[in-house]
Amino acid sequence: MQTDYSRNGIDFRADGAAVMTGFDWSQSLPSGVNGGTNSTIAWYLTPEGELTSLKHEEGYFAVSALWLNDKYCDC
Predict the structure, then answer these.
(1) Which of 16, 33, 58, 67 could cross-link to 29 by cystine, CB 3.0-4.6 Å?
(2) Which of 1, 3, 8 lies closest to 41, judged by CA?
């Protein structure tokens, strides 16, 4: 386990699930890029506490993630 203080902007849903942004230190970055915001992606936290990254296209990064309502995430 590694504590990661880079995850922030947590937006919770009524059932306890959440979305947030944070770094993915293992993400392959485009040639010539050394991290920074290019390794920032959106994450999904289940009500049970399981954290997984949301699907994203290679070369793109997330600046925020939020729930529009309890059924849809604008990530």
Answers:
(1) 33
(2) 8
Tracing tokens 């994203």 back to the chain, one arrives at 56
Entry pTM: 0.68
Contacts of 62 (CB under 8 A, 6+ apart): 21, 40, 41, 42, 54, 56, 75
Collapsing DSSP to helix, strand or coil, 49 comes out as coil
Contacts of 27 (CB under 8 A, 6+ apart): 39, 41
What token pair was written down for 16?
A: 């306890």
Please, which residues bridge with residue 73 across strands?
A: 67
> CB–CB of 11/66 below 8 Å?
yes
Per-residue pLDDT of the chain (75 residues; tens, 9 = 90+): 556 655 667 888 889 999 888 877 777 766 776 656 667 888 899 999 999 988 877 667 777 788 877 766 555
